[in-house]
Amino acid sequence: MANDKKSIELTIMGTPLPVKVDGNEDYIRGLADFVNQELQEIQNSNPHINRIQLMLIGCMNISEKYFQAQRDIAEMKDRLSQAKKEQSAINEHLANEKEQSNQLEQEKKEILKDLQACQRQLEEKNELLNQYREHLKQAKEESESNRKSILNLQNKLFESQIELSKSKDHQS
């Protein structure tokens, strides 16, 4: 396997530094720019600092940023984990709500089906009631007709009795 590393030269605070890279050269140069920027900020705020102290303070500052980034990442992972737990709980709650909704929908369908059956029965009972009313009306009409016939017959009987009585009186 051939050695794919490429040798490049970086400059850190004016000091050339040969480096072998096997990845993105621009990325490595970006790292060197970041280090130079950090060291330049320290030197600008402490113009009389010697190079060793500058490099040590620069290492400490960069290490502090690294560790802060690690803490931030850990905190974000915790937040993400908590968010996933909350999302899981919400999804479970949503699934329960959906199941309840489906049950209520099924109950609604059954109630509507029962309602329709009740409406059909009511219509049948109303139709039967109307038939009874019609029958009752006819019975009343027949009863009234029969009552009138009975009254007529009673009147005729009474008249016949009167005539019979007159006829007996005339004969005696």
UniProtKB/TrEMBL annotation:
Species of provenance: Pseudoramibacter alactolyticus ATCC 23263
Name of the protein this chain belongs to: Cell division protein ZapA
Keywords from the named record: Cell cycle, Cell division
Pfam families from the UniProt entry: ZapA
GO biological process, one term: cell division
Origin organism lineage: Bacteria, Bacillati, Bacillota, Clostridia, Eubacteriales
Region listing for Disordered, in residue ranges: 84-105
Basic and acidic residues bias locations: 94-105
Family matches, as SUPFAM superfamilies: Cell division protein ZapA-like (SSF102829)
Keyword field contains Cell cycle: yes
